[in-house]
Amino acid sequence: MKFYLITSMLFVLGGCSSKYVVTFDSNPKGASLVCSGKNWGHTPRKLYYDESVKKRTTINVSDCSANWVSGARKSYPSNLKIFPQGGTVISLDRPSGDGYAQDAGYALQLRQTQAAENAASAARDSANATQWQNNKTTTCYTNYGVTTCY
């Protein structure tokens, strides 16, 4: 049973490690990552490619673009270098033009929202730990006139 559990955990944990990760980023952060018409969320964003990508020297990610809230848009390159032992990080600078302040403001707003979510999560974890501590049963024993509680 123990061997089966360890083998299962290795299989599950190792499942994602064979994928090739590409981290799409942008400057300013927070642009929508759109690949082949599908919105993957805000940058930075990790996408996982089939392990067969590791056998190539480059990958074409030109069907992916960074789309800022101001309407500015830029495509990722067609020949992204592959590093078989690790992943690739690609970052695009926003094209020049109107709307940079709007995009930078949105990036700041996203960071503030993420910080608030992290703080709420930490507070929830702390409250759960306190509740667990408060619900803990205390057991006491008296032997030879000495009381021990745990």
Secondary structure layout:
Blueprint: H1 2-15, E1 20-27, E2 32-35, E3 38-42, E4 45-49, E5 58-59, E6 64-67, E7 73-75, E8 80-81, E9 88-93, H2 100-134, E10 140-143, E11 146-149
Parallel strand pairs: 1-9
Antiparallel strand pairs: 1-4, 2-3, 2-6, 5-8, 6-7, 10-11
Structure description:
With 150 residues, the protein is α+β, with helices and mostly antiparallel strands. It has a domain at 18-94. The chain has helices at 2-15, 100-134, and strands at 20-27, 32-35, 38-42, 45-49, 58-59, 64-67, 73-75, 80-81, 88-93, 140-143, 146-149. The strands form four sheets. The chain has a four-stranded antiparallel beta sheet with strand order 3-2-6-7, with no helix packed on it. A three-stranded mixed beta sheet has the order 4-1-9, with no helix packed on it. A hairpin with a 2-residue loop joins strand 2 (32-35) and strand 3. The radius of gyration is 25 Å and the shape is elongated. It starts with a helix and ends with a strand. 11% of the residues are buried.
Instruction: Give the SSE string.
Output: HEEEEEEEEEHEE
Low-confidence stretches: 1-15
Taking strands numbered 1, 2, ... along the chain, how are they ordered across the largest sheet? 3-2-6-7
Number of strands: 11
What is the terminal-to-terminal distance? 32 Å
Radius of gyration from the alpha-carbon trace, in angstroms:
25 Å
Chain-averaged pLDDT: 84
Given helix and strand content, the structural type is alpha+beta
The number of helical segments is: 2
Q: What percentage of residues falls in helices of 4 or more residues?
A: 25-40%
The major β-sheet equals: 4 strands, antiparallel
- The coarse overall form would be elongated
Strand content: 25-35%
